[in-house]
Design brief:
Layout lengths: L1 H8 L6 H4 L3 H30 L4 H9 L1 H34 L5 H13 L2 H12 L6 H6 L8 H12 L1 H14 L2 H8 L4 H30 L2 H7 L9 H10 L3 H37 L1
Helix pairs in contact: 3-15, 4-15, 5-9, 5-10, 5-12, 5-14, 7-9, 7-13, 9-12, 9-13, 10-12, 11-12, 12-15, 14-15
């Protein structure tokens, strides 16, 4: 949400000197930006869809509906459906605790939330291997109980949760800090209970930031590769998510099928971008209404 606000306020905070630059300089800068986006964003995205449909609709449809592809799609959605709600609950709880209370270790908690941003996802996968793998701390105990974490669905879910932990919390913390506690304190003074304050005062104020964080979390969860790659075991039709299935297809020189699956993730990214832009527009509209 702080990202939304910064993008909204950015153009308004430009100095007058920036508006008086020579016309040729503006055109050069815009041209460089458009050239960069064309070469490194638009062209690759276009090639994904071109390659996906290069052998016709029948081949494309067969590529995304064969059994291994459907299994990868189902597993990806399942891991996302588990990871996103859990991170939603965690993000709300963490943001509430950090912005509403003072307690020992508060800065450490903030640092830990940011840890998945600083640590490679592969490292996250290896951490879970060390804990739950066959030679890990709890591996033998879990094996005796007939429980398998690594190289199965639970491991994939854990890896997905690890890489998506910061998204909701990191959108809510700066937003709730900027809003302060005045309205909550006023509601408490009027006799509202804790739950009433949360649902009727806090949630309406943070709804767009919350939705923004969920959208980013969802997109990241579906596209995760590193941690899931370590924990999945690459069992075709069982523990491969969509990104892992794409890697296998490409390594087997099934280029069209690989790009067909990649087009699904690309469509997801475009949908995520559209929702993100819509949220930013709504926030800008509400801010303008408040100013006016």
């Amino acid at each position: 949400m702080d990202g939304i606000v910064s993008r909204i306020k950015g153009p308004r905070s430009l100095g007058a000197s920036a508006l008086n630059e020579p016309l040729w300089l503006k055109r050069v800068l815009i041209g460089v930006v458009l050239l960069f986006l064309g070469l490194f964003l638009i062209l690759p995205l276009t090639m994904v869809f071109y390659s996906a449909f290069s052998e016709g609709l029948a081949v494309y449809y067969a590529s995304i509906t064969e059994s291994a592809a459907l299994s990868a799609i189902r597993l990806t959605f399942f891991a996302t459906l588990i990871a996103v709600p859990l991170n939603l609950v965690f993000g709300l709880a963490a943001a509430w605790a950090i912005t509403k209370f003072e307690f020992p270790g508060k800065q450490i908690l903030i640092t830990l939330i940011d840890l998945p941003f600083a640590v490679s996802p592969v490292i996250g996968g290896l951490i879970y291997m060390l804990i739950f793998g066959s030679q890990g701390w709890f591996g033998s105990s879990l094996r005796d109980q007939g429980i398998q974490i690594v190289f199965s669905t639970p491991g994939i879910v854990l890896g997905t949760i690890f890489v998506t932990v910061p998204f909701v919390a990191r959108e809510l913390i700066p937003l709730m800090q900027s809003q302060g506690n005045d309205q909550e304190l006023a509601a408490i003074t009027l006799g509202a209970s804790g739950w009433q304050v949360f649902w009727r005062v806090t949630v309406p104020k943070i709804k767009w930031g919350l939705l923004y964080g969920v959208v980013l979390c969802n997109g990241r969860a579906m596209g995760e590769f590193g941690a899931v790659s370590v924990l999945s075991g690459h069992i075709r039709g069982k523990t491969n998510t969509v990104p892992l299935h794409i890697e296998i297809l490409y390594n087997e020189y099934q280029t069209t099928a690989a790009f067909a699956m990649a087009s699904l993730l690309t469509l997801l990214a475009l949908v995520t971008l559209g929702i993100k832009t819509s949220i930013e527009s709504r926030v800008a509209k509400e801010m303008n209404e408040e100013i006016s």
